[in-house]
Amino acid sequence: MKPLVLLKLLLAAFTAQAADNPPPATPDAPAAIRLPKGRCPTMPVPKVPLTLRDGEHVLTARFLLKADGRIENIRVEGRSPPSWARAVTDAIAGYRCLPAEADQEIESEFRIKSS
Fold first, then answer.
1. CA-to-CA distance for 69 and 35, rounded, in angstroms?
2. Keyword set for this entry (predicted)?
3. CA distances from 82 to 51, 53, 101 (A)
């Protein structure tokens, strides 16, 4: 059962990153974009807590991807157990990204269904 849950999580994360239309920016935050394809060759998948309640859990992560490839200021929002938010934060902290022209505010959605 666990491989199926991980597969669903992985597919949801890549689907969210492949979306063409970023969400509108709020007045007090810079416009966030989806992670550009190929920018981060190493992207660990969150380790799903075994104690996750049944149902669908959706978290939105925003972070600053610096021009030199470093990741800073990871913020995770959504209604889920704290262990799931920590798993997403830890996975993003493990991303290894390539340099680019400028800093980018990134938004990624992580969705998991458990039963």
1. 12
2. Signal
3. 11, 12, 35
